[in-house]
Amino acid sequence: MFDARLRPLIDPPLNRIGRALAAGGVTANMLTFLGLVLGLAGAGAIALGQLAIGLALIIANRLLDGLDGAVARANGPTALGGYFDIVADFAFYVSVPMAFGFLDPASTQAALVLVAAFVLTGVSFLAFAVVAAERGEETRAHGRKSFFYSTGLAEGAETIAVFIAFALFPAWFVPIAYGYAGLCVLTVFQRSALAVMQFRD
pLDDT at residue 6 above 60? Predict the structure, then answer.
């Protein structure tokens, strides 16, 4: 919901750093894989009860996720880079609620529901991208990407805000997880309605 609105604010500084990193020989895939390692390490830290460390690693993951896109824009995005980026993103996204499920068995059911909601959202996102690509449609609402990014209620910015809330207020994990799972399901319906309007012909 907020990703496209944040782009004009965050892209200029990220692009400057991205150009510098690209000039130094750093590739987007390097940053993608480093970010994935840090994100999964953050989930591991949360599962072990180290919430502050986990939160720091989550933030580091998101910073590298922004920088890998900036480096890709400097060097020119590739299909393989886009593939690795989306796989790394969803591996990270599902790892965090799973970590809270391991941390507290009372949170496991809510964590599973949220993971299922992430899967549904991801499927709708990727299915939309596939059909849009087949029809030759493009969008720059989320910046220059290797494939079509459709807008939804639950996007990256909202997800990270929820993850930060989990780490800062772990006692509220269950209601926050159920609430955000509901928003993810609404996103699937929203994206499906958009598909009906956009892909009808």
Answer: no
In angstroms, what CA-CA distances link 193 with 47, 77, 182, 186?
37, 29, 17, 10
pLDDT digits (tens, 9 = 90+) for 180-191: 999 999 999 988
Contact 92, 34 (CB under 8 A): no
**H/E segment holding residue 170:** none
Q: Considering Cα of 101, then 109, then 112, then 124, what sign does the dihedral take?
A: negative
pLDDT by residue (tens digit) across 23-48?
888 999 999 999 999 999 999 999 99
Among residues 67, 69, 65, the alpha carbon closest in space to that of 143 is found at: 69
As a whole number of angstroms, the distance between CA 29 and CA 72 comes to 9
B/e letters for 3-35, b = 16+ CB within 10 Å, e = fewer, are: bbeeeeeebeebbeebeebbeeebbbbebbebb
Residue 164 phi, psi (nearest 5):
-65, -40
Q: What is the C-alpha separation between 1 and 192, in angstroms, rounded? A: 16
Question: What's residue 140's pLDDT?
Answer: 57
Q: What is the model's pTM?
A: 0.84
> CA 177, 182, 185, 189: dihedral to nearest 10 degrees?
-160
